[in-house]
């Protein structure tokens, strides 16, 4: 290794000697190869998790401005949020002004995930900025969609999703088009899921899983698919949970593993009244599990310790107390505050059970 190469690695602590050597061998020492072709080559040479790791590393040593921009999307979309600030800074330091704009918008995206600002705040920032570059306009549109998702204003999403689709059709095959298409499929799945349009939503989810190399998002997609089966099939739900758990284990994804074990499994088990032996430290689902397992007092005690109840927690309390008012409020809030026609079925189902119970008692 030359002194220049050593200095290059020292400047970027993200890249190890071993990774640098592997990437140098693939590129013959020319680090301007397009990310699209680098991605294709690495997935042929290495197994999936190693290939993703090396693509990530290449984003830090590439000498091509376009690669540095696309690397921002790769890191963000694959869940490399710890490394993303370093690449944002590299783009800020670029002499190319368009790289500065990309760095700015990914800074907004990262801030959205880390600090959870008011959606109207970052929507206003993006609108005021204004972009001439079509790909930046597409990223701005994605941000608008995320904001409306957070605001539960799903009625406004259709026009924005159409804008994304039109942009994808104009892009042609490219590394960025692949990642933007994955983003689009994820959003369309979630949009139809919340509207209780499960056949359409699942079609996009399965298409995503079959076409994408993104293990981070595949994990999340399997978790969400599991939840879509919560009313239909406990076995199918657990199939997707096991798929998610397997992928998370392969990529040492402790965050997703913790989410699955503490929240998703207890929730699905409790809804299906198969929660015996299920344990969790996450208090809302601990209450849910306790109620289903007959320890109603513990469940109520936990829920009444919260300052405010979410619609889900209001449903849990209604289930525990057999109080129709709590269930009706939960149903109303899920429909009118969150536009969630899928999970609004939870309190509605419990209300129907109470009505049947009352009918048989009086019959």
Largest sheet: none
Order of helices and strands: HHHHHHHHHHHHHHHHHHHH
The helix count comes to 20
Q: Helicity, in percent?
A: over 70%
Shape by Cα distribution: globular
The proportion of residues in beta strands is under 5%
**Strand runs, count:** 0
Describe the overall structure.
The protein is mainly alpha-helical and 363 residues long. Among the domains are: 117-213; 307-363, no CATH class. The chain has 20 helices and no strands. The protein has helices spanning 3-11, 17-27, 35-45, 48-61, 65-77, 84-93, 97-115, 119-129, 134-150, 157-171, 175-194, 198-211, 215-228, 234-250, 254-271, 283-292, 296-304, 311-321, 324-336, 345-362. Helix 5 runs parallel beside helix 7 (97-115). Mean pLDDT is 92; it is low at 1-11. Pfam families: AimR. InterPro entries: AimR-like.
């Amino acid at each position: 290794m030359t002194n220049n190469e050593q200095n290059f690695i020292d400047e970027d602590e993200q890249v190890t000697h071993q990774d640098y050597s592997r990437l140098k061998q693939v590129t013959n020492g020319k680090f301007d190869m397009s990310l699209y072709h680098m991605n294709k080559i690495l997935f042929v040479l290495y197994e999936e998790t190693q290939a993703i790791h090396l693509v990530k590393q290449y984003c830090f040593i590439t000498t091509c401005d376009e690669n540095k921009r696309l690397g921002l999307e790769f890191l963000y979309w694959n869940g490399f949020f710890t490394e993303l600030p370093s690449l944002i800074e590299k783009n800020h330091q670029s002499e190319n002004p368009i790289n500065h704009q990309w760095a700015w918008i990914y800074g907004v995206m990262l801030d959205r995930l880390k600090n959870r600002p008011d959606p109207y705040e970052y929507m206003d920032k993006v609108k005021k900025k204004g972009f001439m570059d079509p790909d930046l306009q597409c990223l701005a549109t994605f941000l608008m969609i995320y904001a409306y998702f957070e605001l539960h204003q799903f009625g406004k999403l259709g026009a924005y999703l159409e804008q994304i689709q039109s942009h994808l059709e104009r892009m042609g095959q490219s590394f960025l088009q692949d990642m933007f298409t994955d983003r689009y499929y994820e959003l369309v799945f979630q949009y139809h899921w919340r509207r209780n349009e499960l056949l359409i939503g699942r079609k996009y989810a399965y298409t995503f899983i079959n076409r994408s190399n993104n293990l981070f998002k595949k994990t999340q997609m399997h978790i969400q698919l599991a939840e879509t089966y919560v009313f239909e099939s406990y076995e199918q739900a657990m199939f997707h949970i096991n798929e998610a758990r397997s992928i998370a284990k392969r990529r040492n994804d402790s965050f997703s593993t913790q989410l699955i074990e503490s929240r998703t499994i207890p929730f699905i088990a409790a809804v299906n009244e198969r929660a015996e032996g299920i344990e969790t430290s996450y208090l809302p689902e601990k209450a849910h599990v306790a109620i289903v397992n007959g320890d109603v007092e513990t469940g109520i005690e936990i829920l009444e310790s919260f300052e405010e109840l979410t619609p889900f927690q209001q449903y849990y309390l209604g289930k525990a107390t057999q109080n129709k008012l709590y269930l009706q409020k939960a149903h109303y809030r899920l429909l009118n505050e969150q536009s969630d026609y899928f999970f609004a079925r939870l309190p509605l189902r419990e209300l129907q059970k109470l009505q049947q119970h009352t009918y048989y008692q009086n019959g």
